[in-house]
Amino acid sequence: MIDMNNFYQSEKQLTEKDLQTCEQTLGITLPDSLKALYLRCNGGLVYKDCFTLPNLVDKLKIALFMPIKYNLASDHDPDFLIEGTVQQLWQQHKLEKTLLPFALDYSDSFICINLDNGAIYRYRLWDWDDSLTHEQNFTENSDYLSASLDDFLNALTEDK
């Protein structure tokens, strides 16, 4: 069960129609877990923002969950919404089309959900190497975090 009390400063609540529009714009089907989350809160901040795993050298700290449709702080600029970010990264071939970023950590890495299996990854775009293939970049620059969005959200803790 996702602790919705962990979220704050979310954007305007989304509707099913908003999510369908996002899916149509991107040509994807959003995972049910992500739809459920975004129907309850459209991005925002979290009180429990730390994620640790033995295979990660550093502690991952969530900076924000990206909104889908509305972003008051950016005057709804598409580049600061999931749809605009994804379209730009897919056009530049800097993100696998199976990955959908939904959050950022404080190192400006994307937290992504795999659209095929629901697994969660951290993708370090700032480590992109033009001499590598897209597949090699993904392998080199991604960290597996959890098998599902629910597992990821439930593993978030307060920084201590």
3D structure, described in words:
The chain is α+β, with helices and mostly antiparallel strands. The protein is built from 5 helices and 8 strands, in the order E-H-H-E-E-E-H-E-E-E-H-E-H. The protein has helices at residues 16-26, 32-40, 82-91, 134-141, 149-155, and strands spanning 7-8, 45-46, 50-51, 60-65, 99-105, 110-114, 120-123, 142-146. The strands form 2 sheets. It has a 6-stranded antiparallel β-sheet. Strand 6 (110-114) and strand 7 form a beta hairpin. The two termini are 23 Å apart. The relative contact order is 0.18.
Feature tags:
8 strands; alpha+beta; six-stranded antiparallel beta sheet; globular
How many DSSP helices? 5
pLDDT average, as an integer?
A: 87
N-to-C span: 23 Å
Secondary structure: helix percent: 25-40%
Low-pLDDT parts are none
Protein structure class: alpha+beta
Shape: globular
N to C succession of SSEs: EHHEEEHEEEHEH
Cα Rg: 15 Å
Strand residue content: 15-25%
